Amino acid sequence: MTKTAAALTARALRVGYRDRLVLDGLDLTIAAGRVTALCGPNGCGKSTLLRTLAGLQPALSGAIDVDGAPLGSYRRRALARKLTMLAQFNQIPAGLTVRELVAYGRYAHGGWLRGLSRADCDAIDAALAATGFAGDASRDVAALSGGERQRAWIAMALAQQAPIVLLDEPTTYLDIHHQLDILRELRRLNRERGLTIVWVLHDLNQAAAYSDEIVLMRAGRIVAQGTPDAMLEPHHLQAAFGVTMLKTAHPLTGAPMCVPAYEGVIDAGAAAHGGGERPGPAGAPRGCGTQAETPDACGEPGMAGSPGPYRAQDACAASHPHGAPAASAAGAAFGTHVPAPAPSSQRDLAA
């Protein structure tokens, strides 16, 4: 079996600001042509790691290789042809249209002294189309909403056409419709062009759905790294975030997902109801709360120690016995398909 080449490697990496050590002896390998999500609590060093990999933050010690060569061996423009990074916060440029901003992504391919080539224009047009700006490229960047600005910055990063793309919380400011649009488009580019993508995501379920690997971090160190299915195991999430999470599966695709255990909420609800069955989330039908045993009151096996009996589709059906207008209303509001599964049984509705 041919081993996948490494796009980025970090060895014994130590990074700090003044008297605070942020990354402490970190080792990391990012496989080429794959999508890797960095996940972890606030302040664990995710953004610092991205900045250091991009050469924007000097390391106190350790080594970084980009496409097999030491990071320090690259000249600035040569490095820009290898990788691009979109920071979490970017200064809003004054007096620039969206197209002009996106054109800055072509600097690595020729500098400022020459005009835009046909290849430059094609790259700009493709980036604008990918981010939904094909018909709005003449708008002033300063007049855009926060979410629109984020999409404009992502377009600039895509126009650079570097094979390695680093993105610090690319879905910041975006509604769910545009979050999914951006994640799908980046995933498509990964598959079609072989882009290596490293992104910081706070939504673990989005990270699992759109990434090949997840890197869990805590306090400047890597807790675990592996497939989404492996990284959503409760013991890994407990080690990274310090909270109890439950692993489940997407009701339509079967893809791994996780939900918080909400231990305090469940315990308080059980006490209020005199023990026995604990209530499920708001809107869940009776008989679908958390049981002390694992059998599922709704007809499906639950997870030991988890609120497995509660199912989202049952709650939706119980609230809307003549269909699921809430699902269609959500789809209409955000422009995203929200399926409305049928109730698991009429018994659930009658309860």
From TrEMBL:
List, as start-end ranges, the regions of compositional bias called Low complexity. 279-289, 317-333
Residue ranges occupied by any ABC transporter domain in the UniProt entry: 8-244
Give the membrane topology. Answer: Peripheral membrane protein
Asked if the Swiss-Prot or TrEMBL record annotates the protein with the keyword Phosphoprotein, the reply is no
State its location(s): Cell membrane
Gene Ontology biological-process annotations? iron ion transport
The molecular function GO annotations come to:
ATP binding; ATP hydrolysis activity
Family matches, as PROSITE patterns: ABC_TRANSPORTER_1, ABC_TRANSPORTER_2
User: Which keywords, in A-to-Z order, does the entry hold?
Assistant: ATP-binding, Cell inner membrane, Cell membrane, Ion transport, Iron, Iron transport, Membrane, Nucleotide-binding, Transport
Query: Which InterPro entries does UniProt cross-reference here?
Result: AAA+_ATPase, ABC_transporter-like_ATP-bd, ABC_transporter-like_CS, P-loop_NTPase, Siderophore_ABC-ATPase
Q: According to the UniProt record, where is the region Disordered?
A: 273-351
In terms of SUPFAM superfamilies, this protein maps to: P-loop containing nucleoside triphosphate hydrolases (SSF52540)
Extract the Pfam families matched here.
Answer: ABC_tran
Q: Tell me a GO cellular component.
A: plasma membrane
Record-stated family? Belongs to the ABC transporter superfamily.
Put simply, this protein is called Ferrichrome transport ATP-binding protein FhuC (TC 3.A.1.14.3)
What lineage does the source organism belong to?
Bacteria, Pseudomonadati, Pseudomonadota, Betaproteobacteria, Burkholderiales
